[in-house]
Amino acid sequence: MLKFVIFALLFTTTALQAMPFEYQILKPGEGDSIRSGQIIKVHYKGWLSDSTYFDNSYERGEPLEFTLGVGQVIPGWDKGLVGMRIGEIRKLSIPYELGYGERAMGPIPAKSDLFFEVELVYAEKPLPPDTLPKDIAKKSWKELAPGVKIIDEKQGNGEAAKPGTKIKLHYTGWTLSGRKFSSSKDLGRPLETLLGAGKFIQGVEIGLENLKPGAVRWLQISPAMGYGARSFSMIPPNTTLIFRMEMLDAEKDEQLAETMDFFPDTSSLQFQEGPEGLRYAIIRSGEGTPAVSGKNVRVHYTGWLQNGTKFDSSRDRGQEFIFPLGGGKVIRGWDLGVEGMLPGEKRILIIPPGLGYGSRGGGPIPGDATLIFAVEYLGE
To answer: What pTM was estimated for this model as a whole?
Structure first.
């Protein structure tokens, strides 16, 4: 009986020993060591613990290109390739937890330990990181808009960024205390997006307007124009944010801009007082039969919080929204705000909490939130 217990203990201990992560340099390389955030190209061979090969880039004649350290490859590669030099070849022994885990992937069974020989053939020169001056709060900031201050480090040339402009930029963001929370340079690639499409907090949207390629601008954004009283990732509630923005390219796409809704400058619009505290501004006239309660109506819309955060858009989905007007199937602000619209008409609605989601909120909408909508009535 004692022999059986000892054998069982030995067997259990052996079974629990997972393969350790290891790497071995088979051939040294030359030049600078690579780090996370660099775009690299590698050739590789991969095999399982029974020596079955499952992939080989040499046979395809084309190396694999990816950004190191940002999750584009398995964790074992992000961990095991850091520090390589051009021409270096490493053998990686990767436990399944740092590979594909408990799921199968093509010819690789679930819970498979993986082995690779990896040759580094190219590494893009790393971008120099942005640094935050220690006296940043004491700099001579210029107020661009309420809650948004700027310092222009460098002027640019060419097309100025406007809502509807495709932009490419590098950015780094810090809290006012100096903690970095995000940087495109750490990711090794610039951010490409459409200005005015609600991809940024409102303070950044405002701060990027009119920047030209080559320009560098610092932004100081108040909590009200940032993430407000809610936390976001590494950003605590009620945090003032600092950004360094470097505009690389700006190109207006007129056709795309026509199909987009952009966060409105409500201070420049003439609003009418609607029922129950609703306010609306007609920004494009329509013609035809007005929308009436009891009928199904078709609309396109985009909704924002007051700080410019977009929370929903039918245009992003590419599908119009149909609902019975006056039937209580949407928030009351919509039933009141869409009634009377003419086909082709577009309105900006400012909906108080009592006509929206009230104190409870809903999804990405916090409690007691005033909502801003761009609504285009398409007809019945």
So the answer is: 0.61
